[in-house]
From TrEMBL:
Keywords: Lysosome, Membrane, Repeat, Symport, Transmembrane, Transmembrane helix, Transport. One of its GO terms (cellular component) is fungal-type vacuole. The keyword Flavoprotein does not apply. This is Cystinosin. Belongs to the cystinosin family. The chain crosses the membrane at residues 52-71, 95-118, 130-151, 163-182, 202-221, 241-260. It is found in: Lysosome membrane. It catalyses: L-cystine(out) + H(+)(out) = L-cystine(in) + H(+)(in). It holds the Pfam family PQ-loop. It comes from the Eukaryota. PANTHER family: CYSTINOSIN (PTHR13131:SF5). It comes from Cladophialophora psammophila CBS 110553. GO terms for molecular function: L-cystine transmembrane transporter activity; symporter activity.
């Protein structure tokens, strides 16, 4: 018979294993796209909105996870708000993933700058106004939340049940969720318009889907072992991120393997109305 202590060690070991496997899978998903761009010496086929929102989203994600794991103030505020499950479910693999992701998404975004890489970049590959509105709106929301916390509670002796720094971190999480949802839409439409997924790496999608499934499995395991499902609601960032990503991953898999299978050549239309590199959203 396995006693309670042995069972606890086993569950924690499985959780750590799942965490590191999904971290490796998600981390691996950042390499195929910049490598594909490098091999083709071109960014055509990749909507610039995708890496731009990735930069904003993963910077927010990394700041949030680092604070939940290492900040005594944030951990204390979390414990007071979730007394039944006082330990945040953020783990060291989340931080490692975030830091690695920031480096790779900045690298991918930089490939759109001809002077840095010399890649073929269409003059029409510019961030669209709706996406820029998301970026600037997110930054303003974060600034407003930080200002509200300062005005209501000050820098010290904050009431965790009132406005506190943990709310700024939750806002960072919501920004990441918005970026994750919005970033896929231009690319999905881009593929639809060209009737092709050339230039868009499906390998990154397969890695991303694997990571999402394992991330959810780890989150459910941690919450169920703690006997309180508020561990999931307390980490809504990870839950929402995984679900949104997996939904779009399935869409891209359908586009690549079913809808546009075998249609590998980028459409080289010459008129502005049908140019595949023109902005996909209204400017």
């Amino acid at each position: 018979m396995i006693d309670a202590e042995q069972w606890a060690r086993f569950v924690k070991a499985v959780s750590r294993l799942l965490g590191w496997i999904y971290t490796l899978s998600w981390s691996a998903s950042f390499y195929p796209q910049p490598w594909l761009n490098w091999k083709r010496r071109s960014t055509q086929g990749l909507a610039i909105d995708f890496p731009l929102l990735n930069v904003l989203g993963f910077v927010c994600y990394t700041i949030s996870t680092c604070c939940f794991l290492y900040s005594p103030t944030i951990r204390q505020q979390y414990a007071l708000r979730h007394p039944a499950s006082p330990e945040p479910t953020v783990q060291s693999n989340d931080v490692a993933f975030g830091l690695h992701a920031v480096v790779l998404v900045i690298l991918t975004y930089s490939q759109f700058f001809f002077r840095l890489w010399g890649f073929q970049v269409s003059a029409r590959q510019r961030a669209t106004r709706p996406v820029l509105a998301v970026v600037w709106g997110s930054l303003l929301a974060l600034g407003a939340m930080a200002l509200l916390v300062l005005l209501r509670s000050g820098r010290e002796n904050q009431d965790p049940l009132d406005w506190a720094w943990i709310d700024v971190l939750y806002t960072l999480g919501y920004v990441k969720l918005v970026c994750t949802f919005v970033k896929y839409i231009p690319q999905a439409f881009f593929n639809y318009k060209r009737q092709s997924t050339e230039g868009w790496s499906i390998v990154q999608i397969l890695f991303d889907l694997t990571g999402g499934v394992l991330s959810i499995a780890q989150l459910v395991l941690d919450a169920s072992f703690g006997g309180d499902w508020s561990g999931i609601t307390g980490n809504s960032l990870k839950l929402g991120l995984a679900n949104i990503s997996m939904g779009f991953d399935l869409l891209f898999i359908v586009q690549h393997y079913i809808l546009y299978r075998g249609q590998g050549q980028l459409w080289k239309g010459s008129n502005e109305e049908n140019d595949p590199e023109r902005p996909l959203l209204s400017r």
